Backbone:
């Protein structure tokens, strides 16, 4: 089973029950499972205009997550990517509509239009005041007469919902919803399609490609483009969003389509705000998963041109559990580092042989990045190569600021640089190694003994010993042989690194959490890095 579900036929009802259980008493539902699945505000008294929306499931937290004070009054849930029935929609309308009437907010899909539309007609026949708006915010296909309704729908929920909560009548809420729809533009991009539980996944998007302008049901996008990272992705969607976009203040809703990591979403947010259209974005909603397409590894951006009063309505507090809030974009004031973290550095000095030596060592680590990451993925989190390469690049960049002609100060300067640029425990340990080597060198010890003193201090603090499956297994024997020759040191380092592949129990680092079967036959990446450095020196 590729999904954490119980039975396919129970997915939607169990998801609804999970939403209600986690809502702190704010939500309830109508009886009628499994055919009628309607989530309702538990505090609703029918004294104001009701807002009802919904559609197929698979877009969680939409739409049930946006039921609450100041947003939706009820959400009608269909099967995954399928419109709810007319009876289900009618049940939702009848359950929440009082004398003030009901506004239906419908995304522009044929099934939703038909089922919500017919339910509205039947509700009117019962004597209820019902109006309906159709959201068509997708600009992927600008010439399409029936554009899709996507994440921009949430602007309508929020602004019309705030107006209804404040006592506006049905006509005013409807007019506001129609205005917001006209002023909203959305487009999405994804690196992969979604997987519908119980169905085969459509492998439509090749490796290294992304799809621009795809829908929230996995339907194909406008075009497939090369995937070149966040900046290129934002540039492509900005081009679509900017067509006809007025140079006036906007609010951006940055939506995770379900499978993007939060780290990616934050990078996309920063990139969007730094882009050409970012200068018009005054407020941001998200980044967050708000209207998803199951597990689609993508994102969408929705822009709303702000009118008078919209900012207050968007900022108004709500009782909907999934609403992330609307925040004003600010350029932060960057604070200076506290005293003690802006260290006194030794004066820079030039020494071309030392510069060439250090640069060559750094290039060895940079060239080994992918190999070391692959090794680390067997026993850790797969980032040893990247961590070392990042530190190596930073060291190359800082080369002309280092005291290259004074090796005692150089050890300390390298330790200081690593403590600031190299992440994780390995960065701290190597910073300790070089700082201690610098201290030993200042007391008159030769290079070999100074480095051994640095290793001893690193072992004392880090707790790693020979046989613990760490870089120590390669570094200690290499330093022992360094007085003989560099070739002997390289051979000792390689022997020590290869030895770690036979160690099925690690006593330090992330590998200590890995079972013997996963460790067997795989060299420790830190030891491999040491071996490669000494082999380079020997060559």
Residues:
């Amino acid at each position: 089973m590729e999904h954490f579900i119980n039975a396919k036929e129970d997915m939607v009802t169990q998801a609804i029950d999970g939403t209600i259980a986690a809502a702190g008493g704010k939500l309830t539902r109508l009886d009628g499972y499994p055919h009628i699945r309607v989530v309702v505000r538990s505090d609703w008294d029918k004294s104001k205009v009701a807002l009802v929306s919904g559609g197929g499931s698979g877009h969680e937290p939409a739409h049930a997550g946006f039921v609450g004070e100041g947003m939706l009054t009820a959400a009608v849930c269909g099967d995954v990517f399928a419109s709810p029935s007319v009876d289900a929609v009618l049940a939702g309308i009848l359950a929440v509509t009082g004398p003030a009437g009901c506004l239906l907010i419908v995304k522009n899909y044929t099934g939703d239009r038909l089922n919500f539309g017919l339910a509205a007609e039947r509700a009117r026949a019962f004597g209820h005041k019902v109006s309906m708006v159709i959201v068509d915010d997708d600009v992927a296909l600008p010439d399409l007469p029936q554009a899709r309704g996507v994440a921009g729908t949430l602007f309508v929920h929020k602004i019309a919902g705030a107006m209804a909560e404040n006592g506006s009548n049905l006509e005013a809420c409807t007019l506001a919803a129609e205005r917001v729809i006209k002023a909203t533009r959305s487009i999405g991009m994804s690196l992969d399609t979604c997987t519908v539980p119980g169905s085969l996944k459509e492998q439509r998007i090749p490796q290294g490609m992304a799809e621009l302008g795809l829908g929230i049901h996995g339907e194909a996008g406008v075009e497939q483009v090369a995937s070149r990272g966040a900046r290129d992705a934002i540039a492509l969607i900005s081009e679509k969003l900017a067509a006809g976009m007025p140079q006036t203040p906007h609010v951006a809703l940055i939506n995770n389509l379900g499978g993007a990591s939060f780290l990616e979403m934050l990078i996309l947010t920063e990139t969007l705000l730094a882009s050409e259209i970012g200068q018009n974005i005054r407020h941001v909603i998200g980044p967050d998963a708000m209207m998803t397409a199951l597990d689609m590894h993508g994102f969408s951006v929705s822009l709303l041109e702000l009118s008078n009063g919209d900012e207050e309505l968007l900022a108004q507090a709500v009782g909907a559990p999934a609403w992330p809030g609307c925040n004003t974009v600010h350029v932060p004031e960057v604070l200076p580092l506290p005293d003690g973290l802006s260290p006194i550095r030794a004066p820079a000095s030039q020494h071309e042989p030392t510069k060439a030596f250090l640069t060559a060592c750094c290039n060895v680590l940079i060239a080994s990045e992918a190999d070391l990451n692959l090794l680390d993925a067997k026993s850790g989190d797969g980032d040893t190569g990247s961590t070392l390469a990042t530190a190596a690049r930073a060291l190359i960049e800082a080369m002309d600021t280092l005291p290259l002609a004074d090796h005692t100060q150089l050890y300390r300067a390298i330790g200081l640089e690593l403590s600031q640029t190299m992440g994780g425990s390995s960065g701290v340990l190597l910073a300790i190694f070089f700082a201690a080597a610098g201290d030993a060198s200042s007391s008159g010890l030769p290079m070999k003994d100074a480095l051994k003193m640095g290793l001893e201090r690193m072992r004392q603090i880090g707790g790693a010993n020979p046989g613990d499956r760490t870089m120590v297994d390669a570094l200690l024997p290499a330093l022992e042989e360094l007085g003989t020759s560099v070739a002997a040191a390289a051979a000792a380092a390689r022997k020590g690194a290869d030895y770690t592949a036979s160690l099925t129990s690690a006593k330090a680092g992330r590998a200590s959490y890995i079972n013997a079967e996963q460790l067997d036959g795989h060299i420790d990446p830190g030891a491999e890095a040491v071996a490669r450095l000494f082999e380079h020196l020997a060559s």
The first helix runs from residue 11 to 21. The mean pLDDT is 91.
